[in-house]
Amino acid sequence: MNIKQKAARSTKVKKQKMALRDQVWGKVDESRLWDRTKNNGFTTLPRTFPLLAQIMDDLADKGKPVFNTYLALWCRVFDESFIEIKSSIQLATESGFASQRAVTTWNGRMSKLAELGFIEVESGPLGEFQYVLIYNPYILIKEYYDKGEVQKGKYLALFTRSQEVGAKDLE
Question: What superkingdom does the record give (predicted)?
Answer without folding.
Answer: Bacteria
